[in-house]
Amino acid sequence: MTEPGAGTLRRLEELRSEFDDLASRFLGYPTNQNFDYSALLPFLRYCVNNVGDPFHESNFATNTHEIERDVIGRFAALMRMPADQAWGYVTNGGTEGNMYGLFLARELFPEGIVYFSEDTHYSVLKITRVLRTRNIMIKSQESGEIDYDDLYETVRINRDVPVIFMANVGTTMKGAVDDVRRVRAILDDLAITRSYIHGDAALSGMILPFVDDPQPHTFADGFDSISISGHKLIGAPIPCGVALTRAAYVARIARSIEYVGVMDTTLTGSRNGLTPLMLWLAWERFGAEGFREIVREMLEVAAYAVERLNGLGIPAWRHRNSVTVVIPRPSDEVVEKWQLAPYQEIAHLITMHHVTRDHIDRFADDLVAALPVTESA
Asked: If DSSP states are collapsed to H, E and C, what string results for the chain?
């Protein structure tokens, strides 16, 4: 095998150096930079393919299905899904998890209407186009939470059609949580008997289980499927996540594939077999108590960020149990330097586990320095 030349190695080193620099100023997106999967480096010698359903054996034997089942079991327990009812798989990220939930809903209710708020992740519109499902966007409150009155009236007008509801368990820009219990109460009040609720819990799905007073976020609260990201709070070098639902729903779509000797129940054929290893290793290292401590530290830094910025006259705020700190949109220079996520008149920073008080202080200094100078009277 030919070794890489000097030019190739130099280009790789330049890229690594650039990533090191960017990682020191990473505030705007919910991906934890604190992780170490060096123990898994030997597995890069193998093509690890988790093709098909993780709860069935495969002819492609170089897989981590057993590890994947362990991972799904831990997340299912976190989301209060009984082990004998739980099914799931490790996805390549939140969008796939959301698409899987809505795919199951469409298979259960082909004529259903998908309802979601205007603060829902941008991918939902793409998903509804791919699945060719009818959909209606519901207004949001200023906080980012769905407008329940608008939802009630819209569902009432279409009460003869099954409801497929896409709930936000932490919106992208503001970290708002839609109250699934209140949504269920609306459906009950309107005598809706055919419904399905999917929860997009990309980030908050690993926060709310570890706080003392969480908003409703589990299957026991009324969800039919939930998507949680793995590369966000847990952290991973490869985007990943888990899709969770009830095994009874999945039986509706399963079909046997002789070619690989496995049931076809996931959205993709070949699937990454390394990401289940990463999520499993993280659970082994931290466990529930370790994640609880990580969440506590993240929330403390978020509280510090709000206090520090407010003290400088910058109206920063966050929701309860949220690490998403919302601020007025800063200058383009500040957005670019700190890799912030802007939207219209606001932006946010997210205090992932790699974000320290020192990051907040340096960011605050840049924010103040970029403010327009006002002339004295």
From this structure: CCCCCHHHHHHHHHHHHHHHHHHCCCCCCCCCCCCCCHHHHHHHHCCCECCCCCCCCCCCCCCCHHHHHHHHHHHHHHCCCCCCCEEEEEECCHHHHHHHHHHHHHHHCCCCEEEEECCCCCHHHHHHHHHCCEEEEECECCCCCECHHHHHHHHHHCCCCCEEEEEEECCCCCCCECCHHHHHHHHHHCCCCCEEEEEECCCHHHCHHHCCCCCCCCHHHCCCEEEEECHHHHHCCCCCEEEEEEHHHHCCCCEEECCCCEEECCCCCCCECHHHHHHHHHHHHHHHHHHHHHHHHHHHHHHHHHHHHHHCCCCCECCCCCCEEEEECCCHHHHHHCCCEEECCEEEEECCCCCCHHHHHHHHHHHHHCCCCCCCC
Residue 305 has pLDDT above 90, yes or no: yes
**Model pTM?**
0.94
Question: Does 180 have pLDDT greater than 90?
Answer: yes
Is 256 one of the annotated active-site residues of the chain? no
pLDDT digits (tens, 9 = 90+) for 35-63: 999 999 999 999 999 998 999 888 899 99
Distance CA 133, CA 119 (A): 19
Q: Which of 37, 213, 197 is nearest to 105 (CA)?
A: 197
Task: Give CA–CA dist 375/10, Å, rounded.
Answer: 50
Distance CA 114, CA 41 (A): 42
- pLDDT score of 374: 53
And the tokens for 374? 């006002």
Q: Summarize pLDDT for 315-332 with one digit per residue, the tens.
A: 999 999 999 999 999 999
**Which one of 123, 322, 331, 376 is the catalytic residue?**
322
How far apart are the C-alpha atoms of 39 and 189, rounded to whole Å? 53
Q: Are 360 and 331 in contact (CB under 8 A)?
A: no
